[in-house]
Structures are given as C-alpha cells and as structure tokens.
Amino acid sequence: MPFLSDTLSRVKPSPTIAVTNKARELKAAGKDVIGLGAGEPDFDTPQNIKDAAKAAIDAGETKYTAVDGIPPLKDAICAKLKRDNGLTYEPAQVSVGTGGKQILYNALMATLNPGDEVIIPAPYWVSYPDMVLLAGGTPVAVECGIENSFKMTAEQLEAAITPKTKWLIFNSPSNPTGAGYSWDELKGLTEVLMRHPHVWVMTDDMYEHLVYDVFEFCTPAQVEPGLYDRTLTCNGVSKAYAMTGWRIGYAAGPVELIAAMRKVQSQSTSNPCSVSQFAALEALNGPQDFLAPNNETFVRRRNLVVEMLNAAEGIACPTPEGAFYVYPSVAGCIGKTSAGGTVIADDEAFASALLEEEGVAVVFGAAFGLSPNFRVSYATSDEALKEACTRIQRFCAGLS
Question: Where in this chain does the record put each Aminotransferase class I/classII large domain (predicted)?
C-alpha cells in the first residue's frame, strides 16, 4: 500500500513560495537577483505594535489561550468590522487563526464533502484551489480576462453555479491582479447569489486597506445584507499592518460555522501564538495613521511599475485598484526566442528565462489560473523596481 495520502497527490506546492526560494538560492550562490515574487510589504511592523508584543511577553502572556482567539482580540475584531464595514458581529461569531490561510482552510475543511464545488474567479491566489482539493471539494475556476479588468461578471457567476456549488471564494482587491470590485460591480454578483440560496460566500478581504486613487473598498455582506447569514468575512493583519510573520488571520460568520471551524483548529494547531494575538489587538485598536503614507508609497511604486512595463515590447500592464501587485500580459512575447536561446512558449518559459538571463524573479501566470501573464509584487524599494523593470525591458527587447 502507498505510504503517502492519495489526497496529497491532488495538490502541488505553492508556486509563489517556490519562486521566492529559487531567488534566495540564486542570491546565496552569488547571482544578482531581484525578487518580485514575495507577497509581503517591505515596511517594518509599526513600533506601537511591536511594543505591545513586548509588553505581552513581560506580562507573562505566553501560555495557551482560547483555541480560536483571546476575548479582547475578538472584541476588537467585532469593533473593526462595525467601524470599517458596517457589519455587526458578536464574539461567538469570530474565529482567530494562524494567518488568513488557516482561516480559509478551516472553513473549507469544516464544510466540504466529496462532490461539493467551489467557484474561484481566475486569476486567483495560488492556494485557493489546492485548499479546496485538500478538503475534498472540487474547485471550479472561472476565467476573468484582461478585457474585463480581471473581474468576474454576474453572467459568468450565474453560468458557473450548479446544484453542487457550496462556496464562492471572493477576493477584492485581488492577489494576483490588484483588481478591486466597485460597489455596483459587487452588487451585480450579490444579486446572482441571492437567487441561489444554497451558495455561501467566503470573502478574502486581506487587502482591504491597500486601495488607491478614488477606489472605495466594500465587502459582500456589506453590499447585500441578505447574504449575512451565509457569508464568512475573512481578513487579517498581515498586509496592511506589515505583520506577515506574526501569522494572525480572522473571520466572522454564523455561529454554527465558527464552532465547526473551532473544532477543526482544536485538533490541528490549537490557539494562534499568544504574543501575536496581543500584537494584533494593538494593530486593530491602535493608531491607523501609518496606513495613508504607506499607501502613498505603494501608489508611487505602482505607477512606476505600470509605466515601465507598458514601455516593454510585447507587454500590456493594466493599472490595478489596490493590493501591491500588477498582472501584465505577455501575449506579445509568446512564440519568440530570448537572447539566451529560450523559446517563449508560455508565461512559465518567459518567467524562467527572465530569471536565468536577467536575474528578475516573477511568478508565471499559469500558477494563478490565467495565462499568458506574470505577477509582479511591487512591495519593494523604488530602486529595486526601477532596476528590475529596466531588466524586463531589456529582456523583451532581446526577443526575436
């Protein structure tokens, strides 16, 4: 009998982590590599949050906590959801996990049975389909092309729903595209969902505070209160608060679902790190004044990257509404040969040759379910971005 689980054979390692690790290996070997693959801000965690963590350690808050979050943090999450999103939740409706990824995974593990379908707009965060597969469900990708600004239309959602559909996973602003849904765009989707009461909504709002220009964030249960009882609103402190390593995510939803997620967590990781929970408490309750200047930096970087990539031969790069990614098309490069002799058969070949020949690490679009594209994270210095985009321009100019 085989030793490894058949379930494990259905999934693959995270391509974004693989690209980041490859860039690190090349750097360690002495190669001049600029990594644009990692999805984390280059800002330091704000000092008040670090101070709160130190105070928690000094106060002895280093023991086991409640399985899915300390009461003060749950209270802070309820207050945040009311303040920012107009959503009313009680602490019994809140779950805190070890990062946003665990929150999503717990929900899928708690609800999916073999044959259950989960609609996932593509391009998608690489982990969504594999988490669905691990939980025994069937991911249903809906391709949302550049012609629709990488957003799913109401007609596409309607066509994807079947009697087996259990969840829609909704992410705005999006990883990998940065595309954000306006109130009206989201209203079109929620009207479809209201006609299909068996479909639940899992929102990934991790980039809520990273929105630019005139775009205003909104979330499904906020747009359509009728969805409240079948929506799991997920968020965390990783991105906006520059706390990726602290590993705190949270969700709010129906009591029965939260209880089921708690059961999964109780038999897997148990409570999130106690010190990280107190840091997250300060993040949500403390000053928010650093968000605006951080976003100004991201807007400057976004504009720089979009302009320079659109100046590269064969690349078309839309301007996103939020997050810290762009998702340019390389359709104009497919079929050509690089200066180093690599045939650019697809976006994976493009990304591989770009790394080998110019030392720029990006993630190829097929990993996110939509080609031919690649993802750039502009959460790094202006200098690194300028140099990386200059190399990409040079690489594209060398295609023949």
Answer: 31-392
Q: Mean pLDDT, consecutive 10-residue segments, the chain of 400 residues?
A: 85 77 83 90 96 98 98 98 98 98 98 98 96 97 97 98 98 98 98 98 98 98 98 98 97 98 97 98 97 98 98 98 98 98 96 94 95 97 97 98
Give the model's pLDDT for residue 134: 95
Nearest-angstrom CA–CA distance, 58 and 54: 6
- b/e code 86-122 from CB counts within 10 Å (16+ = b): ebebebebbbbbbbbbbbbbbbbbbbbeeebbbbbbb
Alpha-carbon distances of 110 from 3, 6, 255, 256, rounded to whole Å: 25, 20, 13, 10
Fold of 63-285: Aspartate Aminotransferase; domain 2 (3.40.640)
Q: What is the pTM of this model?
A: 0.95
Q: Where are the alpha helices (DSSP H) in 224-380?
A: 255-266, 274-285, 291-310, 347-358
Domain residue extents for the chain:
7-44+290-397, 63-285
Report the C-alpha gap between 265 and 64 in whole angstroms. 14
Count the alpha carbons within 13 Å of 221 in the hemisphere toward its beta carbon.
26
Beta-bridge mates of residue 376: 326
**Residue 2's pLDDT is what?**
83
- CATH for 7-44+290-397 is 3.90.1150.10
pLDDT at 26 (0 to 100): 83
